[in-house]
């Protein structure tokens, strides 16, 4: 197998995983401490890597270019296909709502910084959505060109942020324990969402010609890169600001200003702000493009400009409505996205792999763990969904 293809696939998985969810990690972990969040992150990374390998096992019993919907239809029938479609759409809409809610607030600050004009949260949210909607509606090629430039700048900004914050880490802050036990469970859905990359697996399978050893390598290394970056990010955020201050200053804007104030660097605030903007923007571009193409295929309106505008309205109007009515909903929307991600990344792979193992006429690649691994993974999926439902019901504390 071509090594450059394996490297490219590894970076696609890493790039898909590292996004705006990274910004939510300090907010979700503020009340549980670094050690607890580290244990949760490593556990959820292992879980997501395991279910991704289950997807590879399923793919060897299907066509090389099979999509998630094709796989669900093949192994679970029409009902499985509809469940996959609904979960995919719910996930896309929830993520878009989160990115608009977070990006709208950030965009208002950027307008004020560069132009001196004060705009309302409603106006900035609408302008931010229109900006991204225009790029996505024009076409995938435009998104690709814009995203390449933004991603490069994002990596540079992230490296600068980590370099600025690292010398200011205080060991006692990292040793802080959970403020409230319920926060440990409440943090799981948001942290879980930060490790989602399963939507890109079918494309990777096709790109690597279904070569199982290469796919395993790309998944394990590609998903481990974000884990390492997340650990460093948690060290330099949770280690710079104490728990009580983080809990009092929830929200992206508050997190950025708190970090900048704590290390006494105005330029750091601007650098973190740029990184946060780009993390939101690149994630939003990728997810909204996926939703746009998904809805375009379902609506089947053709490729003329009028039909693309219609698909664009259906893509962006509902999540923008959520952000306008619930402007502080960045963390909440990521929590709801976790429910759909559990279906797509845990329940569907487990159900499909069980069916594939029953139907298999010859022994191919099989993920270690057997039925016990499937049972444990399913149980964790139930815990994540239950946690988000309890947060919604007000039984568990909400985050952000």
From TrEMBL:
Molecular function terms from GO: aromatic amino acid transmembrane transporter activity
Annotated Gene Ontology cellular component terms: plasma membrane
GO BP terms, alphabetized: amino acid transmembrane transport
Signal peptide stretch: none
Function: Involved in transporting aromatic amino acids across the cytoplasmic membrane.
Record-stated family: Belongs to the amino acid/polyamine transporter 2 family. Mtr/TnaB/TyrP permease subfamily.
Membrane topology (UniProt): Multi-pass membrane protein
Entries under InterPro entries matching the protein: Amino_acid_transport_2 (IPR018227), Trp/try_permease_CS (IPR013061), Trp_tyr_transpt (IPR013059)
Native species: Vibrio brasiliensis LMG 20546
Annotated TM spans: 7-28, 34-56, 82-101, 121-142, 149-170, 182-207, 219-241, 272-295, 307-325, 331-351, 372-396
Lineage, highest ranks first: Bacteria, Pseudomonadati, Pseudomonadota, Gammaproteobacteria, Vibrionales
Keyword set, alphabetical order: Amino-acid transport, Cell inner membrane, Cell membrane, Membrane, Transmembrane, Transmembrane helix, Transport
Source taxon at top rank: Bacteria
Subcellular location: Cell inner membrane
Protein name, as recorded: Aromatic amino acid permease
């Amino acid at each position: 197998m071509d090594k450059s293809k394996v490297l490219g696939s590894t970076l696609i998985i890493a790039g898909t995983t590292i996004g705006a969810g990274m910004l939510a990690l300090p907010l979700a972990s503020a009340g549980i401490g670094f050690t607890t969040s580290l244990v949760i992150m490593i556990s959820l990374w292992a879980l997501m890597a395991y279910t991704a390998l289950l997807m590879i096992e399923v793919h060897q019993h299907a066509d090389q270019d099979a999509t998630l919907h094709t796989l669900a239809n093949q192994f679970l029938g029409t009902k499985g296909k509809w469940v996959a479609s609904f979960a995919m759409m719910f996930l896309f809409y929830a993520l878009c709502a989160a990115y608009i809610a977070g990006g709208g607030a950030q965009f208002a600050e950027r307008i004020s910084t560069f132009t001196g004009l004060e705009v309302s949260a409603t106006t900035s949210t609408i302008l931010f959505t229109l900006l991204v909607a225009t790029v996505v509606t024009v076409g995938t090629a435009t998104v690709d060109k814009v995203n390449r430039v933004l991603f490069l700048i994002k990596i540079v900004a992230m490296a600068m942020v980590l370099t600025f914050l690292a010398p200011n880490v205080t060991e006692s802050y990292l040793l802080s324990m959970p403020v409230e036990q319920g926060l440990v469970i409440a943090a799981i859905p948001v942290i879980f969402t930060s490790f989602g990359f399963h939507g890109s697996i079918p494309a990777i399978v096709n790109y690597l010609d279904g070569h199982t050893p290469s796919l395993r390598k790309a998944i394990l290394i590609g998903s481990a890169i974000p884990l390492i970056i997340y650990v460093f990010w948690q060290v330099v955020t949770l280690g710079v600001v104490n728990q009580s201050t983080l809990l009092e200053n929830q929200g992206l804007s508050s997190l950025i200003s708190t970090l900048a104030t704590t290390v006494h660097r105005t330029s750091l605030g601007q650098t973190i702000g740029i990184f946060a903007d780009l993390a939101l923007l690149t994630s939003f571009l990728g997810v909204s493009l996926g939703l746009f193409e998904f809805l375009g295929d379902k609506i089947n309106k053709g490729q003329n400009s009028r039909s693309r505008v219609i698909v664009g309205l259906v893509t962006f109007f509902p999540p923008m409505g959520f952000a306008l009515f619930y402007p502080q909903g960045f963390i909440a929307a990521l929590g709801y996205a976790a429910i759909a991600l559990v279906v797509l990344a845990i329940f569907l792979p487990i159900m499909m792999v069980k069916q594939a193992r029953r139907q298999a006429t010859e022994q191919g690649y099989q993920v270690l763990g057997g039925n016990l691994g499937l049972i444990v993974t399913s149980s964790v999926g139930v815990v994540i969904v239950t946690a988000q439902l309890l947060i919604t019901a007000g039984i568990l504390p909400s985050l952000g």
